[in-house]
Amino acid sequence: MNLELLDFIVGTAGHIDHGKTALVRALTGTDADRLPEEKRRGITIDLGFAELDLGEARIGFVDVPGHERFVKNMLAGAHGIDSVALVIAADEGVMPQTREHFEICRLLETKTGLIVLTKIDLVDDELLELVRLDAAELVQNSFLENAPIAEVSAKTGAGIENLKKLLGEIARKIPARKNETVPRLPVDRAFSVKGFGTVITGTLLSGEISETDEMELLPAGRRARVRGLQTHGKTVNRARAGQRAAINLGGVDYSEIERGAVLAPPDTLRPTQIFDAETEVLRDAPRSLKTRQRVRVHVGATEVLARVQVLEDAGEIAPGEKGFVQLRLESSIVAVPNERFIIRSYSPQRTVAGGKIIDGLAAKHRRKNAAIVRNRLQKWLAAEASGDKAAQVHIFLETAADAGASRSDLQARTAWRTEILDAAIAENLRRKSIVQAENRYLARTPFDRLAAKTLEEIKEHHRREPLARGILRETLREKVFSDLPPEIFRAVLAHLETAGKITAEKDVVRIAAHNQKLSPEDAAVREKIERVYQKSKLEVPTLEQVLSEAIAGSKTTKEQARKVFQLFLDAGELVRVTPEFYFRAADLNALVEKMRGFAAEKTADRMIDVPAFKDLAGVSRKYAIPLLEYFDREKLTRRMGEKRLVL
């Protein structure tokens, strides 16, 4: 037998006082009622647990309360079961909580189970046959339609051995868990054991947990270390998916852990208050599920209040119908794709719907975008049904739009194990359906849209400023990528440059084919500016004087002359020394060579003072001081008192 099938969880379900706890006791010898109040009142209030070793299979029983007031507790135990034992008392037949528990199991997509008719010692054959028919009608067209029916009496022991045999047969048929997600255990109990400290219990839904593992309790984000493990009452080194486990945790007090917390490896899952889902409303629900309706949502072992946002055009989902919804929660939970959930009305409390989570970390949707969201969710369901993991990742990246997602973002969104996620990312890269931007990934559509927007912004800048070399890199980033991670900006520029569409030169970006074309008027201004600096050498006029001389006798404005002047700066022909004075680069370079020659002759100290510099440069103090300070800034000289050391 496949070892993964050796351990499975059976949950009881059914109306109050139909003998669920007595049945578990007859099968296992364990009284699952552990609370004094349960023993005093004779009813199950909270979850109970027991174990049965059939040799070929080990069963963990989750005994749930049947009273309508404790359906919340029933739901906390139903989330992790592999199979259900639908218990119906032969002396009463199908009752309200029988129906509600059955619908809950159906909505949770419990795959297998059986019907157990209890208290057969209290009825005759004729009444027993009526109860059989009643049960068959209840489960018609459901996962239990062809399920075996066991008839037992916990009091006399009749039928118990046959029930064990049927459970063994079910064990052989239960499919192995997919086990694709990171280890995840919803906590249904937390308590303290003297000498050990904090202990939690729950059903491990996926993966494995081993002794000494570092784990995280969500949504609180508390770190803890696994100090010990038990399954089926025995100490073990590791627990695997499908087993109920008791875990001794170090580093956290049991009083800090609430039912519904999720134990997972650190930094893999994230809390959420919004998720998108496909939902089915029960046929016998009293009314449609509507936008803004306040409901109780049960995910895993937790209950949380929420508001419904129906994503269908009608704004509601009628009884018996399916549709897409967004659930906006009033507190944080952990929600992963494919996880089942139940919706109960706020008041009076009644199960009205259930469904499957699609996006556990969804953004809040606007009503006008409902059609787009529906289309995306339908694509995800199709990809999930076909097993196309790469397509699922691609859909999540399309949802993330321009911001893309990091690998850790994708793991939190999918909950997949590392090797599964990495394979899906690699397949997308092979298909060229996504783009890698350093440590982030973008779907191809938003990436191409950003690239096109970037090109258009550069072209628009060229139209506005035809004489400019291009747009400043930082200006471009602020205009197109202001709210996006910097690695996306760098990736788009690299892509466009590789494609030969742009040229990035230090701090300026331009279209590759861009040429700075001068009109006859601009060419005349350029020629005048060039003559001014050639003539003045190192005794240059101020910038304002240069511009005034350049436009004298023409209709060119001073602002246009400034743009022509900028061409000299962009080309490196002119150098800004002060806001007033600009010098030809060639003249400055010649002066530097003169200084170094002067210093080389003075081998003792390589120093030059202001008078010597004035004589060397042939300039007055008006230019000498700004030039020396410029050389200081450029690390060509170093001021030492009243002199400069030539470097």
Taking the alpha carbons of the first and last residues, their distance comes to 83 Å
> Total helix count?
19
- Choose one word for the global shape: elongated
The secondary-structure class comes to alpha+beta
> Measured on Cα atoms, how large is the radius of gyration?
38 Å
Q: Number of DSSP strands?
A: 35
Helix content, binned percent:
25-40%
Please tell me about this protein's structure.
The chain has 647 residues and is of the alpha+beta class. 36% of the residues lie in helices and 27% in strands. It contains 19 helices and 35 strands. Strands 7, 8, 9, 11, 12, 13, 15 and 16 form an eight-stranded antiparallel β-sheet that branches. A six-stranded mixed β-sheet has the order 2-3-1-4-5-6, sandwiched between helices. Strands 17-22-20-19-23-24 form a six-stranded antiparallel barrel.
Briefly, what is this?
By secondary structure, the chain is an alpha+beta fold.
Tell me the layout of helices and strands.
Blueprint: E1 7-13, H1 20-28, H2 36-41, E2 48-53, E3 58-63, H3 71-78, E4 83-89, H4 96-107, E5 112-118, H5 125-138, E6 149-151, H6 160-173, E7 185-186, E8 189-193, E9 197-203, E10 208-210, E11 214-218, E12 222-231, E13 234-236, E14 238-240, E15 244-250, E16 262-264, E17 272-281, E18 289-290, E19 294-299, E20 302-310, E21 316-317, E22 322-333, E23 340-345, E24 351-359, H7 370-386, H8 389-400, E25 405-406, H9 407-414, H10 418-431, E26 434-437, E27 440-443, H11 444-464, E28 471-472, H12 473-480, H13 486-498, E29 502-505, E30 508-511, H14 520-536, H15 543-551, H16 558-570, E31 574-576, E32 582-584, H17 585-601, E33 607-609, H18 610-617, H19 621-633, E34 637-640, E35 643-646
Parallel strand pairs: 1-3, 1-4, 4-5, 5-6
Antiparallel strand pairs: 2-3, 7-16, 8-9, 9-15, 10-14, 11-12, 11-16, 12-13, 12-15, 17-22, 17-24, 18-21, 19-20, 19-23, 20-22, 23-24, 25-27, 26-27, 28-30, 29-30, 31-32, 33-35, 34-35
